[in-house]
Amino acid sequence: MVKTQYNEQHMGAAYGPYGQMTQAPQVQTMRIDDVIVRTVALVAATFVAAILTYSMVADAIATNSFGETVITDSGAFSTAMTLGTVGAVVGLGVMIFSMFKPITNPFVAFVYAIGQGLLLGGVSAFFEARWPGIVVNALLATILVFGAMLALYKFRILKNSPVFTKVMVGAGIGIFALSMVNLVAGLFGLDLGLFANDGNANALQWIIAIGITLWAAFSFILDFDMIEYSANNGAPKKYAWAGAFGLTAGLIFLYWNLLRLLSYFQGD
């Protein structure tokens, strides 16, 4: 955690020629503006990558007279699915790595953003083909929720605390474990019934979707607190990438869950 690693700023002395000592080196510290610039860059990379696979899938599928989605260009569809799969694997790997060490390398952060964009675009095209307008609504909802959480934190209506952190971390571990179990089961062709793929959700699926979406929204409080604390306590500038990565990952995760939740409202 940045907060624990930089409670105190340690700066070593630099030595010149024998008998002379130069001034201690000045370490560039991160600012909130640095996080904002990097977050915009990562979100832009995600969006550009998403447009690529979205266009490929949108051109490769169509809706027949029965309202069913059919593939009209298997080549383009296969390419988009391959890119999405690679993006999903890369994204999962980076996320697991970030649990043990903050992402301060811009290359890793951009690889994650682009990989998630490739996955996000193809899946979004599927949702849009079945429920026209759902992607725009999910994007708008993501922006509104993020803005609302930022305002609640800015005016100290919501703020971090040791108890809040423990609850969020514990819930996050549970959500990750649930997702991994569902993913592994899906690889073996098993449907655990945790998520509705056709939009027709039962009570349990509604509860899970709403719960995860709320967690995604409230997780921004942890990000905002970490960024503010790091900026106020002289964390090195490279940790601006850690803050930007956290916000980007949070926005992507929130979008996924809002997209799923909105699809439930479209069910018969």
From TrEMBL:
<keyword id="KW-0472">Membrane</keyword>
<keyword id="KW-0812">Transmembrane</keyword>
<protein>
    <submittedName>
        <fullName>Bax inhibitor-1/YccA family protein</fullName>
    </submittedName>
</protein>
<keyword id="KW-1133">Transmembrane helix</keyword>
<feature type="transmembrane region" description="Helical">
    <location>
        <begin position="107"/>
        <end position="127"/>
    </location>
</feature>
<feature type="transmembrane region" description="Helical">
    <location>
        <begin position="133"/>
        <end position="155"/>
    </location>
</feature>
<feature type="transmembrane region" description="Helical">
    <location>
        <begin position="77"/>
        <end position="100"/>
    </location>
</feature>
<dbReference type="InterPro" id="IPR010539">
    <property type="entry name" value="BaxI_1-like"/>
</dbReference>
<dbReference type="Pfam" id="PF12811">
    <property type="entry name" value="BaxI_1"/>
</dbReference>
<feature type="transmembrane region" description="Helical">
    <location>
        <begin position="167"/>
        <end position="188"/>
    </location>
</feature>
<feature type="transmembrane region" description="Helical">
    <location>
        <begin position="203"/>
        <end position="227"/>
    </location>
</feature>
<feature type="transmembrane region" description="Helical">
    <location>
        <begin position="239"/>
        <end position="258"/>
    </location>
</feature>
<feature type="transmembrane region" description="Helical">
    <location>
        <begin position="35"/>
        <end position="57"/>
    </location>
</feature>
